[in-house]
Amino acid sequence: MTGARTPTSEASTGELIAQATGDISTLIRNEIQLAKQDLATSGKRLGVGAGMFGVAGTLALYGLGALIAAAILGIAEELDAWLAALIVGGGLFVLAGLAALVGKMRVSRVAEPPKERVASVKADVAAARHGATS
What we know:
This protein has 134 residues and is an all-alpha fold. The chain is built from 3 helices and no strands.
């Protein structure tokens, strides 16, 4: 096609089909370009948002460290500093152990995939490979 379009009232069926095919191809290409632009914009926003969550997590971790140091220093007012650090460290290990137990319980409760669904998917795959058995 050279770019000049035959008016639809004068075009043959073949020319109309060729024009429609060309128009559909152009439309699809343009839509794909727009989708790429939208995804790039969304990706940039997602990246900045994820970076901000990372900064927030890092700052929270430093804040937790400061609170732990404050707890050690507070206990050290009454006890030796090494004993205060030992008490706080032991408490942190107890909390870590409890968190691990709760996590293990949650993970062990995850259900297996439904057997009927797995069988159905396997049947679909077999039918697609070997054709319908009707």
